[in-house]
């Protein structure tokens, strides 16, 4: 989690500095695309602050109103970030683009745009490298897209997507600004804004999908379920694992419920001892499993539950 914060802080500092320079450059050169890029950087800055808020809130201790803790705060704020990228980033950029296509205005001083865009690419690129290195470390040998889908920590890939979209947007604006300057086509300024907006909308859709899945209660993988079944059924008191229910409370906490069929000859004391033993075995094998609820049930009632 410390490395997640490092990538967020690096992106926060880069976006804050770049946003100011983009707005200044946009005002001087009369570039709508540059203003759209400035808005993009402001949204990214707010997003980093919200991610840090989510990380902080998710570490709050359980209390009487939240007995399983506040881990899902991170998922909530990650979803809010995806909405902001869509609405403030993508929506405003597209609106700016349409406005500058309908009423194109010539560039007055493109030189400062080139300078700002070049510096922004360097700074955003450096932030992207930091985020990519962190994500590479966390994913191990897992392919990129598979790691994003399987990741339970949105702070791992949110900054990566934000920085990737930022670098892509900067290159779009740079190319369109150059063509605008060379061929005197002011409508390209609006085209650049729309393209940047579409990039942000696409990124926000991916991030919203992943954050929503986690917020709604994404559980452990089928492979992990099979391994837990094998471990639990090795216990002498268990005849069958009837159902496994699970949800990620946070990237570091899993709530697990096991519905088990025990040997018929076991009395209440024997079942309680088996439950304590199984709970300890599962927690020892999977350190992310913080809460284990075990419910005895007979095979006759197994159809009343769903995985």
UniProtKB/TrEMBL annotation:
Presence of the UniProt keyword Mitochondrion in the record: no
Subcellular location per the Swiss-Prot or TrEMBL entry: Membrane
Pfam families: Cation_efflux
Superkingdom of origin: Bacteria
Keywords: Membrane, Transmembrane, Transmembrane helix, Transport
BP GO annotations: zinc ion transport
Major localization class: membrane
Membrane topology field: Multi-pass membrane protein
Ranges where the Cation efflux protein transmembrane domain occurs: 10-216
Transmembrane regions listed in the UniProt entry: 7-28, 74-95, 115-136, 157-181, 187-208
Any one GO cellular component localisation term in the record: membrane
Any GO molecular function: monoatomic cation transmembrane transporter activity
Coiled coil: none
SUPFAM superfamilies xrefs: Cation efflux protein transmembrane domain-like
Protein name: Cation diffusion facilitator family transporter
Organism: Mucilaginibacter glaciei
